[in-house]
Amino acid sequence: MKTTAALLALAASASAFAPLQSTKSSSALNEFANGYVGAEGPEPIPFSPAGTSVEFDPCGFAERAPEWLPWFREAELKHGRAAMLATVGFVAPEFFRVPGEAYSFEAIPKVIDAHDALPQAMIQIFGWISFLEACTFPALANMNEYDRAPGDFGFDPVGLFPTDPEKQKEYKLAELKNGRLAMIAIGGMVAGASVTGNGFPYLP
Questions:
Q1: Nearest Cα residue to 12 out of 133, 194, 182, 136
Q2: Residue 96, phi-psi category: left (phi > 0), alpha (psi -120 to 50), beta (remainder)
Q3: What pLDDT does 42 receive?
Q4: What pLDDT, in 10s, does the model give residues 35-85?
Q5: What are the C-alpha distances in Å from 192 to residues 13, 41, 90, 94, 116?
Q6: How many C-beta neighbours within 10 Å does residue 121 have?
Q7: Could you tell me if 192 and 111 are in contact, meaning their C-beta atoms sit under 8 angstroms apart?
Q8: How far apart are the first and last CA of the chain?
């Protein structure tokens, strides 16, 4: 089971495509990936044709399936957000636990073992994830109508999202890059914990 979880986590971490805009425009359609943030680079990528991450799209998804770009960005943001939460949720129990003997350090010394040791809890977690995902179906079904930007569900209870367009772009890019990093990180963390059998930092 732990090996399967590690493989699934690694597979889930391989997701990154393109981002955000709420209206169609001729200028945006002429830009790479509809002008979504994330193609600016300039992080180095040794095996890319340009040598950097600028407009990095080795499989050509942006050109081959432009109508799917909003869906690609929606999926990338969702996976990135889930991965960011997962990295915190994977490390935090190494230091403190919720009340209850079943969740104690004595009952489950290593966090990776919770997957097999707490099947009922896992069912509840997947149940709530499925419920939240189902709540987004109407928004996804209307994605191609461009009545909202990919990843924008109008949820900002403390008003962190700025009103300045340049600041908005910075926030979107920061979320995107941190999400991409988190997708890789959670895959490595689960794999490291499974292979080594050790807790944080999951080294031999």
A1: 182
A2: beta
A3: 78
A4: 888 888 777 877 777 778 788 888 888 888 888 888 889 889 999 999 999
A5: 14, 29, 12, 14, 17
A6: 13
A7: no
A8: 20
